[in-house]
Amino acid sequence: MYTNFIESFLTEDECSTIIKSGLKTDIRRLTSVEKVGDVYESSKNEDKHHKRSGSYFGPDDIKNIEILNNVSTRTVELLNKLQPMKNSTYISIPKLTFNEYITGDYLNYHSDIHEIEFGATITVIYQLNDNYDEGFVTYKLSENGKEQKVPKKAGSIFIFDSTLLHAVSKLTDGVRYSMNSWPAFRILKKSLV
Q1: Which of 52, 109, 121, 123 could bridge across to 167 with cysteines, CB 3.0–4.6 Å?
Q2: pLDDT at residue 35 above 50?
Q3: pLDDT tens-digit series, residues 85-136
Q4: What is the b/e burial string over 97-114, where b = at least 16 CB atoms within 10 angstroms of the residue's CB?
Q5: For 61-67, which contacts have Cβ atoms below 8 Å and span 24 or more sequence positions?
């Protein structure tokens, strides 16, 4: 199971600019996704799963907003250097999710199964601030089920296998800002010769 915490991926100014860009979007309560038959639908009972708000940056936003384009490019370059999935190359970030957690918000344990079915292998969480209480990203490794806590550090990123169970603990004070991505990749063909 791949996990990697990297400090200082973003500067303080970059974090601030991303937060300002995110706050200019249509922030609304985000819904959990669950599979009903062969179709993904918004969860009917949100408070059992999570409470948070946010918005999405699509391909045009990423291409046209300089800071998002820069972060996307650097993320892809880093992933290709780290090679979290062998014999593959990361090619782009098709969307970014901007998240806003206020006091009382949380995200219960889940994997990014809905993103996996759309081709994700790796999830990237960008921590944009750290001046809030609690609201830690936590995860459980399948080998032992023991909860691990990701350090809370503005500008850091946490990269992990999209199948990893992860959560955000309940925020007790302040506002937490983060962004998520699920980079697209291409599998490299091995020579048969």
Answers
A1: 109
A2: no
A3: 888 899 999 999 999 999 999 998 888 887 877 778 899 999 999 999 999 9
A4: bbbbbeeebbbbebbbeb
A5: 61/96, 62/93, 62/94, 62/95, 62/96, 65/21, 67/14, 67/17, 67/18, 67/21
